[in-house]
Structure formats: structure tokens, C-alpha cells
Specification:
Blueprint: H1 40-44, H2 51-60, H3 66-94, H4 98-101, H5 103-106, H6 111-144, H7 151-171, H8 173-198, H9 212-225, H10 247-275, H11 277-282, H12 300-328, H13 335-355, H14 361-389, H15 396-399, H16 411-425, H17 433-436, H18 445-449, H19 457-477, H20 480-489
Membrane topology: Multi-pass membrane protein
Protein name: Thiamine permease
Pfam family, one: Transp_cyt_pur
């Protein structure tokens, strides 16, 4: 009797616990595996975070009443993560990271402008996460022992966020998917405990009045705080999925994973603000630590662990994607070394803000919020390009060559980004006096100081205007037929 043939092996397939070898390289069809449902975990874990309760308090401060505020928050969260889900289709179709796929809309070199903005946003929010985790550690340490110095606990929390995020980011996507699954389950259990302990302080008494300006502000705040900050890395986590996987499932699992917890937590924060205005006011300066003010002592340490781990869940995704973006900008390094560079920047920047210049934190956050305007414009262009021009997929060779079908600079994409950003920045305001003077230049004085000025109208305008400009002008640069021919002739993997 003949011996059975040896099992087939794939020399390119790695163990899920090995360091990911791929950087910007195209993921070929034989390397793809998994089902769209795996996308639930990486998007759920970073969005089960106690700070989201504080975000709900911010929306409540717009003065609409709890029901209107909760609806505005839910609309902003769900719609923004729907954009993330749609952008994830680029990874499934193209097999390349998000900002590499962006070369189709902006050109090989023109895309570097968007990549720089994306890199600043990702590294900046990584830094914010490390800082907030450290400040939460300070608050809990002082609550447990007011006479002791909180510095050792702060250093431990800061180092934990940096080290764990860096290690997991170096290992890469497959380890991230596994880690995020267990973090999601852990966060879900801790969230239930937190909500039960805090529920007696909520109130459904409504004191505000509905206004469209405040409602739009709530939607815009939720959208910019959540999905719009993740669109630029959506395809990074879907590019290993089979091309035959359901597109609806890719969009659906991404949207559900990212939006389910924030809708609940923001809604809880809104009614908690109504029941405890003093805590809501304290959350303006200590957005994580203030939420521990009324917790029983026995839950303070689990709460701190929850806070630190939740920022790790977000930071490791930012760190992984920022490493890919750094390579897209033209830096020639292995992916794991790019992650180390990003980690070093976060360590220096976060350490400076926490331990040397705490007053710099507010303007730093304001600056990152401003970056949200051009990133919203980028989102409009990227999704319009995906919808109108990539139905046949991406030309593999053109994504990696400046002389390919997508060219060096796509004037339609870059022009739409610049024009829409200029208009959008003129329709947003900032409470920071240094940054605020550069914004809102398209508002009248009355509009700037009213509810319209605080509505972040420019975010929506930038997204919609960029999509419209690109849709109308890209045909001048190259006909859709020419690009279809280039895809048909090229290697799609």
C-alpha cells in the first residue's frame, strides 16, 4: 500500500505568532485567508475605552437634552465607521495597505502629501493615548495614597503602553488580531462592572433644547473622534482577506465592531453628565481619571488596568499602521524598524508632555483635531476613487512604480485635497487661542461665536467638497477606460 502524499505546505505562509515579514508588499491571492468576521476584534478592542464615556459628556455639554445628544452621537459614530468599512474594501480588493492604495487617487509622489498628514495624525494620537493612560494612573495613585508621589505609577503606566504596543506592533497583523480578541472580551466584562457601579448616578432628566447647530456639532464630534480617525488605516487590516469574501460582510463587521461599544458608552456618558454635572466638569481636565471619582476603592486597580489596556489596544493599531505609512512616505526600512522609529517618537513626545510640559497637552490635542479636516477631505477622495474607478481592482505594478498608470502626481486628487481642506479649515474653530486664530476665516463673527462655529461644519464640508471636486475633475486626468485597460494588463496578484 502506497504511503499517503505529504500535506501541501505554503512556503509563504507564516505562523500567526511569527513576526510579520510583509511591509508594503502586495498580498497575493494564495496568501489570503480568514473570514470578514475576524474584522470585528481589531475594531472593537480600541473602541471599548472608558474615555468614550467622557466623549458622551462633551456631547451633552452642547445643551440638546439627553435623547437628542444620544441620537447625534450614535449617528456620528455609525456613519463614520461605515466609511471605515467601505475603505476596508480597498484592502480586500487590492491586497495593499491603505496609503499604498491611495497612490491610485493621488499619484505615486502626490500621495506623499496625504501620507505625511496621516503619519502626523497616527503618531499624534498614539502620543495622546500614552499621555491619557499616564494621567489616569496619576489620579488613581493619588486616590489610593494621597501622601505618596504618583510618579513611579505614572512611569510604569507610560512604559507599559509604549512597550506592549511596540512589541505587538512589531509582531504584526496576525498577532494583533489575536490580542485584540482577548482584549475585547476582557474590556467587555470590565465595562459591565463599571456601568453597574456608576449607574446610580445617571439621570434622564432633560434640561436642554434641540437645535440643528448643536445636533450637527454632536454628529461631527462623534464622527471625528471615532471613524474619521481610522479611515486612513482601514485597508491595513483587511488586506489578507480572500478576494472572494463577501464585501457586505467586510463593511458590516468593520462598522459593527467599531461602533457598537461607542454608541453605548457615549449614551451612558450623556446621561451620567445630567446626573453628575460636577464629574462632567472635572472630565474636561482629566478625561479618564475623573471617571474614577466615585468608584469603590476595590475597583480602582481594575479600573486603572482597564484604562491602560484600552489605550494599548488603540495605540498598537496606530503604531502598526503608522509604520506602514512611514514606509509609504519613501523611508527604506523593514516594517519592524519603522515601528521602532514611531515608538521612539511617541516616547519622546509623550514623555515631554507628561513630565516636562503638561500645559502643552491642550494645544497639541487641538492641533491633531485640525488635522482631521484634511484627513476628512482625503477620505472623500479615497472613497470616491474606490467607488468610481476601482471596480476592476488595482493595477499592482502601478501602485509601486512612479511611471505606472497612476502617474507621479494626480492633479485631480491633490487639487481636491488642497481646495477642500482650505474651505474646511475656514469652517471650523478651536478653543485654543493660538490655533483658533488661524481657523474659521469663512465664518461671520456671529456665526463663529455661535453654535455653528462649534459644530465642526468644516469636517463635513471638506469630505463632501473633496469627493465632489475629485468626481468632476478626475476624468480630465485619465479616462476610466484607460485605467481599466491598465488593470486588465497588469498583475492583480
Amino acid at each position: 500500500m502506497a504511503a499517503p502524499p505529504p500535506p501541501e505546505t505554503d512556503p509563504d505562509r507564516q505562523s500567526d505568532w511569527a513576526v510579520e515579514r510583509k511591509g508594503l508588499e502586495w498580498v497575493a491571492d494564495h496568501e489570503r485567508r480568514g473570514a470578514p468576521r475576524v474584522l470585528f476584534w481589531p475594531w472593537a478592542a480600541p473602541n471599548i475605552n472608558v474615555i468614550i464615556v467622557t466623549f458622551g459628556m462633551y456631547v451633552a455639554a452642547l445643551g440638546m437634552g439627553w435623547l437628542s445628544a444620544a441620537i447625534a452621537a450614535a449617528v456620528g459614530v455609525v456613519l463614520s465607521f461605515l466609511l471605515v468599512g467601505l475603505a476596508a474594501l480597498a484592502g480586500q480588493q487590492g491586497g495593499a495597505p491603505t496609503m499604498v492604495a491611495g497612490r491610485a487617487a493621488f499619484g505615486f509622489h502626490g500621495n506623499k502629501v496625504a501620507s505625511v498628514l496621516s503619519y502626523l495624525a497616527l503618531v499624534g494620537w498614539e502620543t495622546v493615548g500614552a499621555v491619557l493612560a499616564t494621567l489616569a494612573a496619576k489620579t488613581v495613585a493619588l486616590r489610593l495614597n494621597p501622601s505618596a508621589s504618583p510618579t513611579p505609577v505614572m512611569i510604569a503606566a507610560f512604559a507599559t503602553v509604549i512597550v506592549v504596543s511596540t512589541v505587538v506592533g512589531i509582531y504584526g497583523l496576525h498577532v494583533i488580531l489575536r490580542v485584540q480578541k482577548w482584549l475585547t472580551i476582557t474590556f467587555g466584562l470590565l465595562t459591565i462592572v463599571y456601568l453597574v457601579l456608576t449607574a446610580p448616578r445617571v439621570s434622564f432628566h432633560s434640561t436642554g433644547h434641540f437645535g440643528w447647530g448643536a445636533f450637527a456639532g454632536g454628529v461631527a464630534f462623534a464622527a471625528t473622534a471615532f471613524g474619521l480617525g481610522w479611515v486612513n488605516c482601514a485597508a491595513d487590516y483587511s488586506r489578507y482577506l480572500p478576494r472572494s469574501a463577501s464585501r457586505r460582510a467586510v463593511v458590516g463587521w468593520t462598522t459593527f465592531g467599531g461602533s457598537a461599544a461607542p454608541v453605548v458608552l457615549m449614551g451612558f456618558g450623556i446621561v451620567l453628565a445630567a446626573g453628575d454635572p460636577a464629574q462632567a466638569k472635572a472630565a474636561n481636565t482629566d478625561p479618564v481619571g475623573a471617571l474614577a471619582a466615585h468608584l469603590p476603592t476595590w475597583f480602582l486597580v481594575p479600573y486603572l488596568v482597564f484604562a491602560v489596556l484600552s489605550f494599548i489596544a488603540a495605540s498598537l493599531m496606530d503604531l502598526y499602521s503608522s509604520g506602514l505609512v512611514l514606509l509609504t512616505m519613501g523611508v527604506r526600512l523593514p516594517r519592524h524598524r519603522a515601528v521602532l522609529i514611531d515608538a521612539a517618537l511617541v516616547t519622546v513626545g509623550g514623555g515631554y508632555v507628561v513630565f516636562a510640559a503638561p500645559d502643552f497637552f491642550a494645544p497639541f490635542q487641538a492641533f491633531l483635531t485640525v488635522i482631521g479636516v484634511p484627513m476628512a477631505a482625503w477620505t472623500g477622495i479615497f472613497l470616491t476613487d474606490l467607488w468610481q474607478r476601482r471596480r476592476h481592482g488595482y493595477d499592482r505594478a502601478a501602485l509601486y512604480r512612479p511611471d505606472g498608470a497612476y502617474g507621479r502626481v494626480n492633479r485631480a486628487g491633490l487639487g481636491a485635497l488642497i481646495a477642500a481642506s482650505a474651505v474646511g479649515l475656514g469652517l471650523v474653530t478651536s478653543a485654543d487661542p493660538h490655533i483658533g486664530r488661524l481657523l474659521g476665516y469663512l465664518f461671520t463673527r456671529a456665526a463663529r461665536e455661535g453654535s455653528l462655529g462649534t459644530s465642526n461644519l468644516g469636517v463635513f464640508v471638506a469630505l463632501g467638497l473633496a469627493a465632489l471636486i475629485y468626481a468632476l475633475t478626475h476624468r480630465v486626468v485619465q479616462s476610466p477606460r484607460a485605467e481599466q485597460d491598465s488593470v486588465a494588463a497588469g498583475d492583480r496578484g
